[in-house]
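Mods, move this if it's the wrong board.
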Amino acid sequence: MFAFVSSIAFAGAAYLAGSSVLSTYSESRRRIGDALRGRPLTRINPVLNGAA
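Not the wrong board. Structure tokens:
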């Protein structure tokens, strides 16, 4: 039972990590496209205070 619960937790963590990587990648591509077209860029607000 513990192995099943931990495998579900690992799958959830892997899904969360993968989705955050994909969203970061798509956001970066959008910002690069905006910069190349001369559009003003919005400020990036870091989620963690230490990332500033």
